[in-house]
Design goal:
Length: about 550
């Protein structure tokens, strides 16, 4: 007589039990990380790949799939229940209120009384789990950030009746089956009003950017928190509690930053996240001399309810960290020339064309690179590297550099590499913020500079000279001339070929043309640039 012993897997049996109730089950293998021995991690089984894990959470399961999954994941000791839309009832979503402390649960018990007696209540290792079902159609998008309270509406939670003595995990039903077969289904969100952020009633606004700049093109670009201005000490008094926001924007803060602060319109202004927008606002305030208390009072009075500051678990700590990072950026490795250049760029009047967002992004990226590389005004960077920082294609960056060079904001000396991999040189030049770029170009072309004007090294006052727009000299001739201006001691043709990265035959041809127009002179085998430009246009 043979005896057949059947080994029952308790984890699989519990998973099948919750699968029969209509939940998505996940095998979970707890562990303790060496760097945080006091905290127990509850990740999925190591036998589940990332792509497979996403498919498990988003698709319905059959009993055969559950058996195969838990049989394969032999390291799973507890069962996880997926939160969010239920597989058999997609019009309903499972939401779990995860209280990290029992004291917080007792203090908020008054808000949970309408449905607390009719739903699942689970005691965890440190706090409580409250299970509810919410109609998916009215699922709120924003939940309040309450310390020691996590609202699980995606991912998974450890299922009730699970225990792992090795890690001290115990999840015990206080209310549940069989008296309460399923979590309560809330017909409305009135019972959860204490946990939901109300929708802000802000008027509809139009973007300050041109309509030709698409939102997808702006969202993948660099953060625009390089707008600096001269330091100035100023304080703001906190508004009275009766007013929802200050009557007018504080002194020194631009309209763009004030719009970001009051309306949380970070997406329409091209910021990739709310944190980047907050950094731009705090950086502008810190650069104007506002202390932390003034910034905090301004945020308390002007921020909408859906801002990250109002939804953060510890808003004071979040704002203080942002303010400290902004002060560190303003104080470390930022020269006065770079600060002054960024100030002029922030107040520069851009031409109203469709490439405005791209050109602004490129020039702000160059300012960021000058601060990062600690090199101003000359930056050594390749087109591909600049494109990766600006999140644009190399061709787009190259076209933008040509437009910026036409406006007199920089001088680009490209290398001879056609694949744009070698580093070129970009010389940032100080613009004139009081004049329009297009007007400046027209006026300088119609009336050439006076013969008494002296062009100092590194200055770009002669970028619109008629010689550089002619076919005789052109852009390469201007680069040749500017290189000689940067070295008053003169350069040989060999040294010049190493700096300009042009073929030797092209350099000799440019030398011949510039000597013809009396722009340079040659003494003892060295070439020298003449300071005064002749007032002639070659025929």
């Amino acid at each position: 007589m043979s005896i057949i012993l059947t080994v029952i897997n308790p984890v699989l049996a519990l998973a099948l039990r919750y699968h029969a109730m209509g939940f998505i089950v996940v095998p979970v293998a707890p562990r303790i990380e060496p760097w945080s021995p006091d905290k127990v991690k509850k990740p999925p089984s190591k036998f589940i790949k990332t792509t497979e894990f996403k498919a498990i959470l988003n698709n319905a399961q059959s009993e055969r799939q559950v058996r195969d999954l838990f049989t394969r994941c032999s390291d799973a000791t507890v069962v996880g229940l997926a939160t969010g839309p239920l597989p058999n009832e997609p019009d309903q979503s499972l939401v779990v209120l995860d209280f990290d402390s029992r004291e917080l649960f007792q203090s908020m018990q008054q808000d949970l009384l309408p449905f607390l007696k009719d739903t699942w209540l689970v005691e965890t290792r440190r706090g409580m789990h409250v299970y509810v079902r919410v109609p998916t159609a009215i699922m709120p998008h924003h939940w309040k950030a309450i310390p020691q309270l996590d609202i699980k509406r995606s991912g998974y939670v450890v299922a009730p009746d699970c225990a792992d003595p090795d890690y001290g995990l115990t999840y015990r039903f206080l209310q549940g089956p069989p008296t309460i077969p399923r979590p309560v289904l809330l017909k409305s969100l009135d019972a959860l009003s204490a946990f939901i952020v109300p929708d802000p009633l802000t008027p509809s606004r139009t973007s300050l950017l041109p309509a030709a700049a698409s939102a997808s093109r702006i969202s993948r670009s660099q953060p625009l928190w390089i707008d600096m201005a001269p330091e100035r000490s100023c304080e703001i008094s906190p508004p009275t509690p009766s007013t929802p926001e200050p009557v007018s924007r504080p002194p020194g803060l631009s309209e763009t930053h004030w719009d970001l602060l009051c309306h949380n319109s970070w997406q329409s202004h091209g910021y990739p996240s709310r944190s980047e927008a907050d950094m731009a606002i705090v950086l502008a305030l810190a650069n104007q001399g506002y202390n932390f208390r003034a910034v905090e009072s301004l945020y308390n009075s002007a921020c909408p309810a859906d801002s990250k500051y109002k939804q953060h678990a510890n808003p004071t700590s979040y704002l203080h960290h942002t303010y400290r990072q902004a002060c560190r950026f303003l104080s470390e490795h930022v020269s006065e020339d770079l600060r002054r250049y960024a100030t002029l760029i922030a107040t520069y009047v851009w031409p109203p064309d469709q490439y405005l967002p791209t050109d602004r992004r490129i020039i702000n990226t160059l300012v960021h690179q000058a601060q990062r590389l600690r090199s101003f005004p000359r930056i050594s960077i390749s087109i591909r590297e600049l494109a990766s920082w600006a999140r644009y294609s190399p061709a787009t960056v190259q076209r933008s550099l040509k437009r910026l060079q036409t406006q007199g904001l920089l001088i680009h000396s490209p290398p001879s590499d056609k694949q744009r991999r070698l580093s070129g040189t970009i010389l940032l030049t100080f613009p004139d913020p009081t004049r329009h770029p297009a007007t400046a170009t027209t006026s300088s072309s119609s009336s050439p500079p006076a013969s008494s004007s002296v062009a100092s090294p590194g200055d770009c006052s002669d970028i619109h000279h008629p010689l550089w727009s002619s076919a005789e000299c052109g852009e390469r001739g201007r680069i040749f001339y500017k290189r000689l201006q940067d070295f008053p001691q003169g350069l040989t043709m060999k040294d010049l070929s190493d700096l300009v990265s042009l073929p030797r035959s092209t350099l000799y041809d440019l030398r011949k043309r510039l000597l013809k127009f009396n722009l340079i002179e040659e003494r003892s085998g060295r070439l020298f640039a003449k300071i005064h430009l002749p007032q002639i246009r070659p025929s």
